[in-house]
Design brief:
Layout (H helix, E strand, L loop, with lengths): L2 H19 L7 E5 L5 H9 L4 E4 L5 H7 L5 E4 L8 H4 L5 E5 L2 H10 L4 E6 L13 H10 L6 E7 L8 H19 L10 E3 L6 H6 L4 E4 L7
Parallel strand pairs: 1-2, 1-8, 2-3, 3-4, 4-5, 5-6, 6-7
Helix pairs in contact: 6-7
């Protein structure tokens, strides 16, 4: 199926979820996760009107950026090793996985412009997931005041892979609460207005709980 056809289906789901939550769809951004698909399929996504593209591998990232034409915002959505920062940081507009000071230091050292960052929070506490614990997130955000190449625009999480909607919803709710707490501090380097949460299987729940960026791969561009 064409990306444009899949996008129409997803937009209807977004509209319905936004209406249930009393939200405006203009506040919800789709990040098309193109990490598993070819440059041609990625270009098809851009031609369908998608302006946010998500990648998570440093290898081949720059080449993909150069191969795609059009107005695109590149999102790096995977865990980023400090030693790989130099390969990607000046190609990306958004980083969704800031979770340690060593990474912040490397961004500060390598970035030629300010990078819009989401702090990755491991709300579910699953051992295999990266991210800060909710208890340590606020302190970490405050520590980033010394890094002028980093602007904390929001928080990011991944819900557990489960059929239990209440578990998923609870995860997103907690992130939304944490975002509010940090935003209330009025930190100049960390407005923290955004929430990156929700993927192909749970984005409608994420929208109901306040997501402003949803990361959709398989159901939009395919595997």
């Amino acid at each position: 199926m064409k990306v444009s056809e899949k996008l129409n289906v997803i937009k209807k789901d977004i509209q319905a979820a936004a209406e249930r939550a009393g939200r405006n769809t203009d506040d919800i951004n789709i990040v098309a996760v193109t990490k598993y698909v070819s440059n041609d399929r990625t270009q098809e996504a851009v031609d369908a009107g998608l302006v946010h593209l998500g990648e998570n591998r440093p290898e081949g990232f720059k080449e993909k950026c150069e191969a795609i034409s059009g107005e695109v915002n590149w999102h790096y959505i995977g865990s980023l090793q400090s030693r790989k920062v130099k390969n990607v940081i000046n190609e990306v507009d958004f980083l969704h996985s800031l979770d340690r000071i060593s990474l912040a230091k490397e961004i500060q050292k390598r970035a030629e412009k300010q990078v819009l960052c989401f702090i990755q929070v491991n709300v579910s506490g699953e051992e295999q997931k990266h991210g800060l614990s909710p208890e340590n997130t606020s302190q970490f955000v405050e520590e980033l005041a010394n890094y002028d190449k980093i602007k904390v625009i929001g928080l990011m999480t991944m819900a557990p892979l489960t059929e239990d909607e209440e578990v998923i919803r609870s995860c997103f709710k907690q992130l939304a609460e944490l975002r509010k707490e940090i935003a209330a501090k009025n930190l100049q380097h960390a407005p923290c207005t955004e929430l990156s949460m929700g993927m192909s299987n749970d984005f409608t729940i994420a929208i109901e709980e306040g997501a402003t960026y949803i990361r959709i791969g398989s159901s939009l561009v395919g595997e």
